[in-house]
Amino acid sequence: MRVLAFDTATARTAVALMDLEAGDNARPRAVLDLALVDDPAPGTRPGHARLLLELVHRLLERSGGGWDAVDRIAAGIGPGSFTGLRIGLATAKALSASSGVPLVGVSTLQALAVPAHGRGKATLAVIDARRGEAFVAGWTAVQDPLTDVPALAPQVLAPEQLAAAAAALGAACSVIGDGAVRFRDVFVRGGAQIPADESPLHRVSAREHCRIAGLQPAAPSTSIEPAYLRAADAEATRA
Amino acid sequence: MTGLILAIETSCDDTCAAVITGAGEIRSNVISSQQVHDRFGGVVPEIASRHHLALLSPVLDEALRAAGATLDQVELVAATRGPGLVTALVVGFSAGKGLAAARELPFAAVDHLHGHLAASFLRPAEFEPPFLALIASGGHTLLADVRDHGPQLRLLGQTLDDAAGEAFDKGARLLGLGYPGGAALERLAAGGDPRAFAFPAAERMPGLDFSFAGLKTALLYKVRELGEPEAERRRADLAASYQRAIVAALLIRVRRALKQTGARRLAVGGGVAANGPLRAALAELGVELEVPPPALCTDNAAMIASAARYSKALRFPAYLGLDVYATGAQRL
Ligand SMILES: [Zn+2]
Question: Does B53 contact A89 at a Cβ distance shorter than 8 Å?
Fold first, then answer.
């Protein structure tokens, strides 16, 4: 199965095109191509609107197969930047409607957790939610983020709740994501383990979206919604 | 062009999609208005943007269904690029680019104001340039010298503060009517005396620019001065006098612009064009007048499709890297 995946929940624009083996593990047979445009400087607007379709086009062109060879589109549903999510999902739904390729929504937290998991430890994926908060989801040591519903469901937490969330998942829980870097001190005090700031484990790659999507049935694209995890009213009353 | 043009417009709070023919005949024009902003007394960008994403696929499906068309018949995709709310614009613009990209169709990035002007070009009116255009809505108030069909905007004047529709809405709120309150204010005004109070129409401000902030303040002071029971008793008079001032402010500048340009023809657009007293006053100007039906005056995608006919359509993949713009008229 060939999956085209992208994620625009964080400041990075990530796109991947992958051929998967059949079977329970959705192991990559070939990573056809991977495009990661690194995060823009703080205070600059992410380039999702400009970059996303350019990268998709570049990958499809290099693969040689075009849309006819793609079996599934996978789009990151967040949580993350609201505008980033909408650019990704508006693009994904349009591409799916226009090409006829089925669409799958993939949790960005789940995609972050997959490569960090698997050393017998619990994993907490954390995305910076701005305004001093974090989006989190967690998997225990016996779970597999590739397929399992997270023991700690995706939610938004205040800094003082973060250490407890990691500890509840298991001792020496491994914490990853830009939120892990942002709130490193809080987690370290709680006994969690965090890879070095520059570790690729903290950054979203669309590679895992391909695998996760390969194991899920395609849904009607109208059922795919962003995981905002925060009410829009909050944005309104904040002003 | 023999095929169809599919257009998307999401610059503010209406989610719009339309299908027109290459000759400018409307096949469908779907507008999904969001009524969720009432309790906030204005458009909340985050709420509007969430609704755009949720509504866009069904609105697009409906536009194709109502047109009796499929994507196979679409030869050109268009979407509003700006000006407007960036978070709202990117939803429709991303979708438009995506629809076009997967089929390698050409794509037209349309300026929203060009769209309002191009509403008049659609059939059956086919109001052809040259003409003077007055666009008055909750988002913009401007006078333009329309000499051809193209996207080059020849702006003669615009509002320096509030838009005319905004003035209606703010006045309505001061008088205890809901949001948006333009239509409610007009209804209330129908039973009042437009000469009961003398509100300013910025008559002494020279040139063709508009200003409505002073008018809103004048109403606020008048309501305070009258006191609550008296202001309540004279609400209809207040509404009628306030409306008269807005209409007068628009009329004064339309007259000046007609004189300045020598134009004998006038097209009106924007939601305020639905206002009865304004239409009546414009009809008495003695020029050839075009007021498109309400669905083409308020924000809609048929006008974006119309503008696309006269915009530079980019071939695939030249448009993939385009982004939206919030203000001004950035050209390709
Ligand atoms: Zn408008």
Answer: yes
CATH architecture label of A2-108+204-238: 2-Layer Sandwich (3.30)
Is A223 at the interface with chain B, CB within 8 A?
Answer: no
pTM over 0.90: yes
Residue owning tokens 């990704």: A88
Secondary structure element (H or E) that encloses residue B82, with its range = strand B74-82
CATH class of B130-291: alpha beta
Contact A216, A223 (CB under 8 A): no
Going by C-alpha positions, the residue among A37, A66, A237, A28 that lies closest to residue B104 is A66
Chain B residues whose CB is inside 8 A of the A49 CB are: 90, 93-94, 322-324
| Architecture of the A109-201 domain | 2-Layer Sandwich (3.30)
A130 touches chain B (CB under 8 A): no
CB atoms within 10 A of CB B257: 21
- Per CATH, B4-119+297-314 and B130-291 having the same topology is answered yes
Residue ranges of domains in chain A? 2-108+204-238, 109-201
For B272-325, how does the pLDDT look when each residue is reduced to its tens digit (9 = 90+)?
999 999 999 999 999 999 999 999 999 999 999 999 999 999 999 999 999 999
Helix (H) or strand (E) holding B8: strand B4-9
Task: Write down the ipTM of this complex.
Answer: 0.95
CATH T-level fold of B4-119+297-314: Nucleotidyltransferase; domain 5 (3.30.420)
Q: Which amino acid is at B248?
A: A
Is-contact A7 A204, C-beta < 8 A? yes
